[in-house]
From TrEMBL:
InterPro entries cross-referenced by the UniProt entry: SPP1-like_terminase, Terminase_Gp1_N_sf, Terminase_ssu
Entry keywords, A to Z: Viral genome packaging, Viral release from host cell
Protein's UniProt name: Terminase small subunit
Key word rRNA-binding present: no
Any Pfam family matching the protein: Terminase_2
Record has Electron transport as a keyword: no
């Protein structure tokens, strides 16, 4: 079994800086790489298997220090969402959700964690000898597709 490559000092600094805000470009700059090439360098570092391993190790160590797991965070988000979505009635009898903004944010964070929507294309690395695959998410939730179909059918645009 080949020995795992060790990180250079700059790569170790990048990992430490990346753990601050998970921003590869800023981490590269803070680790001492050129600001002009930091975007590319950050990306290149993130796809190196040894850097990926170091980042995953650092994340696990941080989770252990904080005694927090993904499950803990998701459970708390669920509680926040449920609390924010309570229906309240004002003095004039109008009903509304307690806190739309908090409910929306909790749902957004849960959705992001579940990979339901992304702002950026996803880069998948399979095997070192294969080129990376760029995946651009084009999935539309079934509820939205159903509404589109209903509206299109009512307008006479789609049959069946």
């Amino acid at each position: 079994m080949p020995k795992a490559k060790s990180l250079t000092q700059k790569q170790q600094a990048f990992v430490a800086e990346y753990m601050i805000d998970l921003n590869a470009t800023q981490a590269a700059i803070r680790a001492g790489y050129s600001a002009k090439t930091a975007y590319s360098i950050g990306y290149e570092l993130l796809i190196k298997p040894e850097v990926q391993t170091a980042i995953e190790t650092a994340k696990k160590e941080r989770a252990e220090r904080c005694r927090r797991t993904v499950d803990d965070v998701l459970l708390e988000l669920g509680k926040i969402r449920a609390d924010a979505m309570q229906i309240v009635t004002d003095k004039s009898g109008h009903q509304s959700m307690l806190n739309h903004a908090a409910a929306l944010k909790a749902l957004e964070l849960e959705g992001k964690h579940l990979g339901m929507f992304t702002d950026k294309p996803k880069l998948e690395l399979n095997k070192p000898e294969e080129p990376p695959k760029l995946i651009i998410p084009l999935t539309i939730p079934s509820e939205i597709l159903q509404k589109i179909k209903e509206r299109s059918n009512s307008a006479g645009n789609i049959s069946g």
